[in-house]
Amino acid sequence: MGDVGERAANGSPGRSEDRAAVDGVDAVDAAGAAGPAGSDGSAQPVAAAGQARGAGDGEVRLPGPRWRRGVLLAPGLAVLGFLLLIGTAVEDDQHGKHAAALCHRLAVPWTLVAMAWASLLCGAASVVVCVLFFRVARRAGQRGAECWQGTLAVCICVAGVLALIFQVVAVYGVHAESGEAYWKCAGVRELTAVLGGW
């Protein structure tokens, strides 16, 4: 009876020690879940910090404004080359009709040759410029196709590769036409003599 009264008087120290140990374990677990303290002394959640790092690792880096402006040079050259190709075709058609109307071969004008070569050079330059810009962006860890300027450049330059085939054919056709032998219609001499132009 004396021991029981003594324990009751002392507040049951055995139970107090067990409760203190449990409280200590809970405090350690809470500190681990909260993570390290921030600069202001407040705890930062570990889970939130992990999600932030994951989001930072998967972030897409876009090229800067200078790259976006410069890459538009590629589709500009491709469109210019295509327009020059159309101009070459129209000029060659008019030249052929004029020769047929005069009924003899005419020399190929230098403008036709110049347009054919300019079309080919612009088409080839557009592809080269597009490839170079995207190589620069890739080395910098950037994704150029994620911006609308890069997407536009890729789409137009892919179509420009197909136009490049026709531009090569146009240059070959102009030079082949320049190397043709002189020809005339059977009655062209008599006709010009009658008209007084012979």
Percent helix: over 70%
In whole angstroms, the N-to-C terminal distance is: 151 Å
Overall 3D shape: rod-shaped
Count of the domains: 2
Instruction: Determine the oligomeric state from the structure.
Output: single chain
Radius of gyration using CA atoms only: 41 Å
Number of continuous helical runs: 8
For the biggest sheet, the summary is:
none
Mean pLDDT: 72
Which class of secondary structure composition applies to the elements? mainly alpha
What is the β-strand count?
Answer: 0
SSE topology string: HHHHHHHH
Can you tell me the residue ranges where pLDDT is under 50 for at least 5 consecutive residues?
Answer: 1-9, 11-15, 27-57, 190-198
Q: What share of residues are in beta strands?
A: under 5%
Set out the fold topology.
Elements: H1 2-10, H2 13-34, H3 46-57, H4 65-71, H5 73-102, H6 110-139, H7 148-178, H8 188-195
Helix pairs in contact: 5-6, 5-7, 6-7
What does this structure look like?
- With 198 residues, the protein is an all-alpha fold.
- The chain has two domains: 2-57, no CATH class; 65-195.
- The chain is built from eight helices and no strands.
- The chain has helices spanning 2-10, 13-34, 46-57, 65-71, 73-102, 110-139, 148-178, 188-195.
- α5 packs antiparallel against α6 (110-139), α5 packs parallel to α7 (148-178) and α6 runs antiparallel to α7.
- 19% of the residues are buried.
- The model is unreliable at 1-9, 11-15, 27-57 and 190-198 (pLDDT under 50).
